Amino acid sequence: MKKVLISHLLVSALGSFLIAIFTAAHQGYSFLAGSLVIFLSFLMLGIGFSLIFEKKLIALAISIIVFKYAILGIIIFTIVKLPWFTPLWFAMGVASFVLSAIYFAIDESLRSALKEGNDNVI
């Protein structure tokens, strides 16, 4: 999970930087806000599930899910009111997590192929 989150931070930084340079700064901010919202969501999900599996409490799982979405709803509601907010680039920032997941899948498949001794990976 750490590798996916770190790669997502790199995708977020690079994407927002390129968008700010080639389009407008406020669109880069919107992209960064969207990608940080999804980063926060997955970070809270990882922490929550580690606590759930450690203590095996169903009530903890339900409360984490409820509070996570309440907190994310408040954050998104606050971001939407900002003057520099652009919905399209915010949605692209949220969707940028797919790039991190693809990176993780490719990296893990290459890593497992190298462990098996398959030299004809690429």
TrEMBL record:
It comes from the Bacteria. The chain crosses the membrane at residues 30-53, 60-80, 86-106. Keywords: Membrane, Transmembrane, Transmembrane helix. This is Uncharacterized protein. It comes from Bdellovibrio svalbardensis.
